[in-house]
Write a structure and sequence with these properties.
The complex is a heterodimer of chains A (232) and B (536). Chain A is 34% helix and 28% strand. Chain A is of the alpha/beta class and 232 residues long. In chain A, strand 4 and strand 5 (72-73) form a beta hairpin. A 6-stranded mixed beta barrel of chain B has the order 3-4-8-5-7-6. In chain B, strands 2-9 form a two-stranded antiparallel ribbon. Classes of the chains: A alpha/beta (232), B alpha+beta (536). Chains A and B meet through helix 2 and helix 3 of A and helix 1 and helix 11 of B.
Chain lengths: 232, 536
């Protein structure tokens, strides 16, 4: 039966084999997230934060357990179905920005919309609006290598939100930025996702960033050890 | 959930197109790989076709419309036989022929066919020589019979070397210098006659007999036997023929010579295809490199929701685009190379088989279509594996650097096993079964490609030993071999390509060497004495 929560994971486990050894990176994790909720996954490197994001986006598959997003069973989907689900419903913000170097920032931003089937003119128009919102108006025809790290991450945020996804996943979005730029990028990410009502799940080891979320989930050696509501 | 069809937004094409433009050297390498492969295949095809066409025209010029001929082999026929047959009133068209290869310093020193004929008997056989349409009619060539050494040449040949009616020319016949006299010019009535006449010098039977020193001898008597009553016609002729003289079909003469050169031309074609295989490895190598280089970008695309099928189509489309440009460039290069190759091929045919003058490069449309299709198909197959590799790897694997080499390690072992099996089976077939020429070449391909597939795996095994051996140089000496082994997905196709290229070079040298050795061997067996005498 599909759960009533926007996102639900139940007894989710994942392990990797390295040589002869098998390492558990996520152990029977369970949680529920309400619509429009901003959740921070906090933990040290190797605690399982990125693995959980990969599983939620359908990039990776779990060994066992369930993942339900908006009533859809992700575990039951095959690779192609997960990809198409991701195309429509997930926005990604990576630590290393991952913009496509041969596309302009307008084309980078418009790509998820074009993939979703929007006309190129419509996609470009909406991408232009979002680029203005992240403070990059007038830079539409620049290529990513002409932008600073902070600017690239702002493009990545615009790209993650342009197709109005159900869920935005951010993996250490400020991990590759200096402190001041990191704060600006976080402000923008939180402002835009809250403004559009998108769900945001952010993996971080930065307590300051985590405090801006509605809830902080502590992960330690693959286990969810603490679930804290943050009072804003 | 229903699977969506492949959607390719314009931005994805821009992503691919700009990558090609942004890496001009890499794109150029791909272009060169395919264009050189296509160029070699097309040029060999053009050279073969030109040589074959020239050969057909030479045969057509000499054989004409005859269906059969009376021959006694190299010994020739007595010319009384022709007179006897004429007197018998058999009502069968027949024409005596004697031919001789000559070279003339006044006609460019190229080998020409001196054809001795009887003009009164010629019309049904070689109409382009003596007909109403040909301006040089029988009435105009009275000197043909009366002047010693009288010859006719085509008007084109005369114009080319600045000769006119009445000029004397020196001809070299069997090493002896003789004088001939141009008594008339033949004006061909169409392109075919023009091509047929361009290698011919025409004379009366007795003139050729005198010039060649074969007095009273004919080479053959051409016949036109009625299609439906050939056996009846033969029965009429046979009682007049002495022993050792027989009636042979005209087509057999050209077939024998064609068969002699068929193997040579098949060899050239097969080696040109191996050349294309080298290009194929080059495309594979550059495509793999471009996929490795963009692994992170493909990972990003997959994370954004681009399906494996879409990435497969994208990479393959990119390769095909280069393949199209490369094939077009290859066709142009092939035509240019073909003009040079015609000389080489006809020279080898002249050296080894028979005298052939190829004056025009024949450019069959089928050669160009075949070359373009070969180029596009080669690109398609070479890009399949890199495209599949980019498409099938899940995004997590694309984002991780070590996985591809881990993957290629497994692929290399499998490829080596399959390659060794293919080479072993092909070798066994070559050694034990009496195969046709085509099947033999298929097996040779099997051995070459099979061994090419084992080379990367073997190199990966050998490199650690090389690293140890080069250890005395210091860290740099150890580093290079380790790099080769560790980046097998990029270095292995280059190794395989090099191996095939070396194999093609050795194969070509062996082929030419063995042809020449066969001829020398044959000459040694035939000419065992120190000095020979010859009738001048």
């Amino acid at each position: 039966m599909p759960p009533s929560a926007f996102l639900k994971i139940q007894d989710l486990s994942k392990s990797y084999t390295e040589g002869e050894q098998r390492h558990s990176v996520l152990r029977t994790a369970s949680l529920q997230i309400a619509r429009s909720e901003f959740v921070a996954l906090l933990g040290a490197s190797g605690s399982g934060k990125s693995t959980l994001l990969n599983l939620l986006s359908g990039i990776d598959t779990a060994d066992s357990g369930e993942i339900w997003i908006e009533g859809k069973d992700l575990v039951a989907m095959n690779e192609a179905q997960r990809t198409l689900f991701r195309r429509k419903n997930i926005g990604f913000v990576f630590q290393f920005f991952n913009l496509l170097p041969t596309l302009t920032i307008l084309e980078n931003t418009a790509l998820p919309l074009e993939l979703a089937g929007a006309k190129p003119s419509t996609a470009s128009q909406k991408a232009g609006v979002l680029l203005s919102q992240v403070g990059l108006a007038g830079r539409e025809t620049s290529f990513p290598d002409r932008l600073s790290g902070g600017e690239q991450q702002r493009v990545a945020i615009a790209r993650a939100l342009v197709h109005d996804p159900l869920l935005v996943l951010a993996d250490e979005p400020t991990g590759n930025l200096d402190e001041d730029t990191g704060i600006q990028v976080m402000d923008l990410l939180v402002h835009l996702t809250r403004g559009s009502g998108n769900n945001l799940i952010m993996a971080t080891h930065n307590m300051e960033n985590a405090r801006r979320a509605d809830r902080i989930l502590h992960l330690h050696e693959g286990k969810l050890v603490e679930d804290v509501k943050v009072l804003q | 959930m229903k699977q969506n069809p492949v959607t390719m937004p314009a931005s994805l094409f821009k992503f691919a197109w700009r990558y090609l433009l942004g890496h001009p050297l890499q794109s150029l390498l791909m272009l060169l790989g395919i264009s050189l492969g296509v160029a070699v295949a097309v040029s060999v095809d053009v050279a073969n076709a030109s040589a074959a066409r020239a050969f057909d025209l030479s045969v057509e010029a000499v054989v004409g419309r005859s269906t059969h001929y009376i021959s006694a082999g190299p010994a020739g026929l007595p010319d009384e036989l022709y007179a006897d047959l004429r007197r018998a009133g058999l009502e069968i068209p027949m024409a005596p022929v004697i031919s001789q290869l000559i070279v003339s310093p006044d006609l460019g020193n190229t080998p020409l066919q001196l054809l001795g004929v009887d003009p009164f008997a010629e019309q049904p056989f070689r109409s382009y020589l003596f007909s109403q349409e040909t301006q040089t009619g029988i009435e105009q060539i009275g000197a043909f019979y009366t002047v010693p050494g009288a010859v006719l040449v085509s008007i084109d040949l005369a114009e080319k070397f600045g000769l006119i009616v009445g000029d004397n020319i020196h001809v070299n016949v069997n090493g002896q210098s003789r004088d001939a006299y141009i008594v008339g010019l033949l004006e061909p009535r169409d392109a075919l006659s023009r091509r047929a006449l361009e290698n011919l010098v025409l004379a009366d039977i007795s003139t050729v007999q005198e010039l060649s020193g074969r007095l009273g001898a004919l080479e053959r008597i051409d016949l036109i036997l009625p299609t439906d009553k050939q056996e009846v016609a033969k029965e009429k002729i046979l009682p007049y023929l002495p022993a050792n003289v027989e009636i042979l079909p005209a087509e057999g003469r050209s077939q024998a010579v064609e068969q002699m050169t068929a193997a040579f031309r098949t060899n050239l074609t097969a080696l040109s295809l191996l050349g294309l295989t080298v290009g194929l490895f080059l495309i594979y190598n550059t495509m793999t490199f471009s996929v490795v280089q963009r692994r992170q970008a493909f990972g990003t695309l997959r994370a954004l929701g681009v399906t494996g099928r879409e990435i497969f189509v994208l990479v393959l489309g990119e390769a095909l685009l280069v393949g199209l440009f490369g094939s077009a460039l290859g066709l142009v290069l092939g035509i240019i190379l073909g003009r040079g190759a015609v000389d080489q091929v006809s020279q080898t045919i002249n050296d080894v088989f028979f005298t052939l003058t190829v004056r025009e490069v024949n450019l069959p449309a089928s050669s160009l279509v075949k070359g373009a299709l070969l180029g596009i198909a080669a690109t398609f197959f070479a890009a399949l594996l890199p495209a599949w590799e980019a498409a099938k790897s899940p995004p997590r694997r694309i984002l991780s650097r070590s996985q591809l080499e881990l993957l290629s390690g497994k692929i290399l072992a499998r490829a080596a096993f399959l390659g060794a099996a293919m080479a072993a089976v092909s070798l066994a077939l070559l050694a034990t079964v009496d195969l046709s020429l085509g099947a033999s070449f298929a097996c040779t391909f099997g051995v070459t490609i099979g061994l090419a597939f084992t080379t990367p795996w073997l190199t990966q095994r050998i490199m650690p030993q090389v690293s140890r051996l080069l250890g005395f140089i210091g860290p740099l000496g150890r580093l290079a071999p380790r790099e080769v082994a560790d980046s097998a997905s990029r270095t292995s196709p280059a190794m395989a390509a090099l191996m095939v290229a070396v194999a093609v070079t050795i194969g070509a040298s062996l082929m030419v060497g063995s042809f020449r050795a066969s001829v020398i061997n044959w000459l040694d067996q035939i000419l065992s004495n120190d000095i020979y005498g010859s009738v001048a």
